[in-house]
Write a structure and sequence with these properties.
This protein is an alpha/beta fold and 503 residues long. The protein is built from 20 helices and 11 strands. The strands form 3 sheets. Strands 8-9-10-7-11 form a 5-stranded parallel beta sheet, sandwiched between helices. α13 crosses α14.
């Protein structure tokens, strides 16, 4: 059975092109909730709220079970799975018009960010054409979901109209903008688009009248003046600023996508970690046949070598990521600031980065949706720092280093995890020998032995101790008196974010 669900309008279900009849209101409400949360478990309590909206009878749980049983008879027994604490609808994303809408909008944003505005308009029009009416009009328990869906539609339509105005199609979109203003009179962005389209069409007086009507309406309805963007546009129209007639400059036809290369230098010399490097290979190897995102968490105490391991692997596998490598030292910075940096690194002009955090994240994921990209997030504090920075592409890979095990990221996002432990004694000795340099005197050899013992396999302690030994040797100090006991954590904590030792 090949099921297809249409929810962007009256709920309809098709099986191989033939519509299935589901008439009972409760069954429709339950199915609607399952479709909106496709491939995720919806609890029985949530389904009860969807059906009865706060006035559920004592037998609500049993009635939900009966409705699910009837839906299984209509859709097929395998379509709806029982999974504690509720049920799950197993379906491909392409079989739900709401998910197809979201995917098309995301692709359009990526095209627009890359300068392909005509292609972006075509994708947005294709997405908007999926809407056939108002979804779930009679289901009170889904009113917030309906509001979210409607907001997504309006944002997509606004983005489409803005692109068409930029492309010089201002005459064509004026009737659609007039209808949208009547539908959503409080959306100032739409009124600004209408003013700009009217002005570019040579209808300056109409543009000014649109502003006056907007101002009067807002004052009467909510007692507020128009916002700063609309007021600024009004001033520009009054002054006939030449910039209003210039559409945004198109991306040069020969310009390719920006390829960021942000990896810091490797930490050298480097020894050991063959097992950890193999684990990174296994977790993050691109698999064209099965394109799924991959994240690896490298967890361990400070100074154990997490950052050095991440950079060693990243530089060694740079050919796996031809679309670029992004890097951020997360110590003391917010995820929002890093998103801004990443967008600029991916070629988005600073003035085109949205102010709204949700729009900014959507643009970031759109810019990474089709790239084979590596993202390294170093010295992360907690999972909340990571989640906004996970890229949108199935062929993107992420390495996160943290002193915290980031259990939430592993549990909720399916991240792989490797606990980075101190170096074995043999590897620590090899690293110390390489750092101190040969040939040894007996005194130097004993100092190196003491260094390895006191470091307890912590690479940063070995590196700091070896640096102190070489410094004292240059000043003719007795190496045997040196006590290489600088704790790695203290060195990391004392250094500023941009100059700290690798962890």
């Amino acid at each position: 059975m090949a099921l297809e669900f249409h929810v962007l309008g009256p709920l309809r279900v098709f099986d191989d092109g033939e519509e299935l009849q589901i008439c009972a209101n409760r069954e429709l409400a339950i199915l609607a909730s399952l479709v909106l949360n496709a491939n995720r478990v919806v609890s029985v309590d949530r389904l009860i709220e969807t059906v009865w909206a706060g006035s559920a009878p004592q037998s609500a749980g049993r009635q939900v079970a009966i409705c699910v049983s009837r839906l299984r008879r209509t859709l097929g027994a395998a379509a709806i799975e029982t999974s504690s604490p509720g049920y799950l609808l197993r379906v491909a994303a392409d079989d739900i018009d709401w998910l197809r809408f979201g995917a098309l909008v995301a692709r359009a944003r990526g095209q627009a960010a890359g300068g392909a505005r005509e292609d972006a308009v075509l994708l947005l029009r294709e997405a908007l054409a999926l809407w056939r009416g108002n979804p779930f009009e009679d289901i009170r328990g889904l009113r917030y979901d309906v509001a979210r869906m409607e907001e997504s539609r309006l944002e997509a339509l606004e983005a489409c109209l803005e692109l068409e105005i930029d492309l010089g199609h201002h005459h064509r979109v004026i009737p659609e903008l007039l209808a949208l203003v009547a539908e959503c009179p409080f959306r100032e962005r739409v009124r600004a688009q209408l003013m700009l389209a009217q002005y570019r069409a040579g209808r300056r007086a109409e543009a000014l009248r649109t502003y006056q009507e907007t101002r009067r309406y807002l004052l009467e309805q909510i007692g507020l003046e128009p916002g700063p963007a609309l007021r600024r546009l009004h001033d520009q129209v009054l002054r006939d600023e030449s910039g209003l007639m210039r559409p945004a400059a198109p991306r040069p036809s020969g310009a390719g996508p920006v390829v960021p290369s942000q990896l810091p230098p490797q930490v050298l010399p480097y020894v050991g970690r063959t097992g950890e490097l193999a684990a990174l290979d296994a977790a993050l190897r691109p698999e064209p046949e099965v394109a799924v995102p991959g994240t690896m968490v490298l967890s361990g105490p400070r100074g154990v070598g997490k950052s050095a391991l991440a950079l060693r692997w990243a530089h060694g596998r740079i050919d796996w990521f031809p679309d670029g490598q992004l890097y951020a030292d997360m110590r003391g910075v917010s995820a929002a600031a890093v998103v801004d940096r990443f967008l600029r690194a991916l070629g988005v002009p600073a003035q085109d980065i949205p102010l709204d955090p949700a729009e900014k994240l959507a643009l970031y994921r759109s810019c990474t949706a089709r790239r084979r990209l590596l993202v390294v997030l170093d010295d992360v504090k907690d999972s909340a720092q990571v989640l906004p920075l996970l890229p949108g592409g199935a062929n993107c890979r992420v390495i996160v280093t943290s002193a915290d095990p980031l259990d939430d990221l592993v549990a909720r996002q399916g991240a792989h995890r490797e606990f980075v432990r101190p170096l074995p004694a043999e590897a620590a000795r090899e690293l110390a020998d390489m750092l101190v340099g040969a040939p040894y005197t007996p005194t130097v050899a004993q100092a190196v032995t003491d260094l390895v013992a006191t470091s307890s396999g912590n690479p940063l302690s070995v590196r700091l101790g070896a640096a102190q030994m070489r410094s004292r040797a240059r000043h003719h100090h007795d190496l045997a008196r040196m006590a290489p006991n600088a704790p790695a954590s203290a060195a990391c904590d004392a250094a500023p974010p941009g100059e700290r030792q690798p962890t």
